[in-house]
DNA sequence: TATGAATGAGAATTCATTCAT
DNA sequence: TATGAATGAATTCTCATTCAT
């Protein structure tokens, strides 16, 4: 490579571009963490800049203001979870296994991405205003709903599932079972006087949730 | 009455107390609304004073500071829901009916007390710090858990319920099914492109939740 | 006086009120000077607080924001000049003397209140937006116009003045002759290479202006 | 042409210069508009770059900083008005006509170049600092003064004009009559409750100003 | 000559909280 | 018990300017 021979290499255009991209992504990640930890209202632009190890002014250079930044973080989070869902190959599994898999996935994703829960909370505290402004609302409709409908239909046909199950309701229920437990984990742990995030507690919760969902769906 | 003779009457002690109590409660209610609407971080002491139509300084007189006020609001909210739960006479009902009743109650309470959801969110965003400081954590352990355990036991004994159901897990699940749907209603409505709080949608959700819980618990 | 005997005198209500009033007036005066010196855009809230020797926050307590403060300053300035105009007893003078008197007054007022010129400039740079928002626009219509109309009419009747002189045009002209000279004094002094504010120059200007106005108005 | 053979053509020196000149002029025009609209304090370098459709950095390349840029704009404005004045062939006209012509010219120029008024205001708000630094102050002394002196002398000699009229004072007065009306047009329109820039109002003003100047200067 | 990225010093405004009565 | 006035420490956002290429 010629580049290694010259002293002051001029970065290729793509590389230079990537600088801007990198900064933007760094900011986005820092903001995600800050928003997750403190909520939209409690987040501090100063701290985001610090976390990103970038000049505060740069945040405003790339993202209009705090609200816009929050919206960008939110959209990124949705994109992330949708991408993760893509990896899920539920169609290859038997209906009951597919459902179990979905419960497990939801649980694991929330556990590994606690920021998602907080961001969702913040968004709803602000009446999902940021979502409405984002024309993308509908895009965010998880493809899982379709998939879930397919699974339920398959199960009903092969006689293992009961009929009349609304996929949207079920989807919300699956999410809700994990969400409430994890999002309010602090309060629940305090109230019940035990650590609800211990390995044992986590295993118990997962088992319980699978039991609930399958108990509901399985015929007989 | 002596009072009519003096120009600037000093109210009788009891009356002053009652005034004090009234002020305190007014502040508490105003604060609850404000915290519910904006979260702990977004709430403004000014607005609370405005809502209460009382001088801002008075808030500090009765409640140390914002944090303390939030804690007071939180405790009051727990007291309120516990009180509501007292009204529930589940012991008189057949196990399945009792469970259905509990699902309905939870759903209705959250619907009528949306502030409870937001307060819970705020509390957990702050890692339930306010709860831990409040020595009352354990007091807040709902008596419902015991009641629920009793119901499950009765059901198991009379053969209608499956065995091995953990009352705490079930309690959390019942709450979670309502909570997620209502707390994230804005996001969900945007994503699914329909109003999830319409009368019809509400009825459907309630039916679904009862089906899920009973489908899980009922033997056969 | 009883007050002098007690250690910690409680100020009479009026006096306490006056504290607020005094603060407000202090701020207003400080703001007037700052706006006059730097214009609306160049004025600094910090400096206004400093000039007033009051907490910056207090400015926002009494005046919404910078714009509102500017508007308040502007209104006060108009009130001041109108009040000064009230002192002018032009009706008692012969028409020509009354006109001369008006020219002299305008000149003297602008000289003594240079801030008025700058404020007027600032207001117009912002398209007099602050004036339009102030419902008072019409109130500010100087009573001088009526008075001027009367003088012109008297002069015409007694044969000393020409007819057909529009009072508004004349009013604007009288103001303009002083205004341009003083407002752009720096540029003019630089261009003409002499100090246009020296006592001699001032006298010459005043004489010239009287000559212009009377030369125009006087018949013959 | 050799140019077609090279990949990255280096423009011929003259061409580069012309580009440079063009850029500089574009910036100057953009800056003039921005300064005119917002004043020196309110002008934004960002907006100037935007208006010029050029990179902000380029402004600093050609013009040291904001102040220097303002000074350049100011000088250009003076050059422009002096150039326009050159076109005026007052010497060929009868003294009274020449004066009328001058009033008309001033009025028309201010009307067509509203930025000139604002720039003059800004310059004086800053005490004409930019002018003093510009060694050109004296150069800017309008040749009109000499011309005006000539006209007055001619008029005096032929008996139409009164004697003892100071050309500088008259020059300032002519400017002031137009300037005040136009510069404070917004305030005046608001105060008098009518549009002072309507075609009719403009005609009336012009007539009035000619009357004032000639009424003053004409003997009898 | 031209440009996108980056920055430090400020500027307006906000907010919880306290003073003084 | 109640209140209007006052404050200091943030906090968001802005702006002229410079870096690096």
UniProtKB/TrEMBL annotation, chains A, B, C, D:
Keywords: DNA-binding
Origin superkingdom: Bacteria
Matches recorded under InterPro entries: Homeodomain-like_sf, HTH-type_TetR-like_transc_reg, HTH_TetR, NicS_C, Tet_transcr_reg_TetR-rel_C_sf
SUPFAM superfamilies: Homeodomain-like, Tetracyclin repressor-like, C-terminal domain
Keyword DNA-binding: yes
Annotated coiled-coil segments of the chain: none
Start and end residues of each stretch annotated as Disordered: 1-21
Any GO molecular function: DNA binding
Keyword DNA-binding: yes
DNA-binding region (UniProt annotation): 44-63
Domain HTH tetR-type: 21-81
Cross-referenced PANTHER family: HTH-TYPE TRANSCRIPTIONAL REPRESSOR SCO4008, TRANSCRIPTIONAL REPRESSOR
Protein name: TetR family transcriptional regulator
Native source organism of the sequence: Ramlibacter pinisoli
Phylogenetic lineage: Bacteria, Pseudomonadati, Pseudomonadota, Betaproteobacteria, Burkholderiales
């Amino acid at each position: 490579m010629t580049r290694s021979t010259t002293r002051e290499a001029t970065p290729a255009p793509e590389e230079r571009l990537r600088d801007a991209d990198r900064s933007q992504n760094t900011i986005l990640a820092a903001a995600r963490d800050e928003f997750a930890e403190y909520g939209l209202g409690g987040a501090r632009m100063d701290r985001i800049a610090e976390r990103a190890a970038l000049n505060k002014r740069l945040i405003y250079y790339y993202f209009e203001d705090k609200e816009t930044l929050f919206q960008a973080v939110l959209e990124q989070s949705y994109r992330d979870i949708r991408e993760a869902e893509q990896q899920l190959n539920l169609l290859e599994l038997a209906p009951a296994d597919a459902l179990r898999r979905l419960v497990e996935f939801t649980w694991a994703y929330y556990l590994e991405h606690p920021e998602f829960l907080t961001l969702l909370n913040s968004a709803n505290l602000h009446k999902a205003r940021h979502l409405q402004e984002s024309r993308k609302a509908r895009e965010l409709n998880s493809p899982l709903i379709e998939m879930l409908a397919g699974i339920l239909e398959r199960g009903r046909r092969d006689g293992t599932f009961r009929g009349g199950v609304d996929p949207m309701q079920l989807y919300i229920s699956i999410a809700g079972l994990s969400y409430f437990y994890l999002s309010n984990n602090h309060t629940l742990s305090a109230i019940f006087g035990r650590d609800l995030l211990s390995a044992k507690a986590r295993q118990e919760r997962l088992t319980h949730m699978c039991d609930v969902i399958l108990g509901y769906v399985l015929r007989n």
